[in-house]
């Protein structure tokens, strides 16, 4: 399935617009990852563990959105928007949400 942030897919005109589709994933950060991330923050550098969690959450949210599009008969999603939010007590959770328009191309 093609998912794109653009409003259309070059060379593949939409035959039908099927509606808005979404995907949401909420992940918690565990204590050990928090400790190592805070050390990384102090000494500098990138936090590989958080990056892994963020990448996994993004992939899962996109997959959920694409699955919803397929259920509507779509084979692509256009106008995809990704959002990231920190939620929960003391910002202990990360929410990745995406939305777009399911289309048949």
UniProtKB/TrEMBL annotation:
Superkingdom per UniProt: Bacteria
InterPro entries: UPF0145_dom_sf, UPF0145_YbjQ-like
Family: Belongs to the UPF0145 family.
Protein name: UPF0145 protein FHS75_001068
């Amino acid at each position: 399935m093609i998912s794109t942030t653009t409003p259309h897919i070059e060379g593949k005109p939409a035959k039908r617009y099927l509606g808005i589709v979404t995907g949401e994933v909420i992940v918690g950060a565990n204590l050990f990852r928090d400790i190592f991330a805070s050390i990384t923050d102090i000494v500098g550098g990138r936090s590989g563990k958080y990056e892994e969690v963020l990448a996994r959450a993004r992939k899962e949210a996109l997959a959920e959105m694409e699955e919803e599009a397929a259920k509507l008969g779509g084979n692509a999603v256009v106008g995809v928007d990704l959002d990231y939010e920190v939620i929960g007590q003391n910002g202990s959770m990360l929410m990745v949400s995406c939305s777009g328009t399911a289309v048949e191309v």
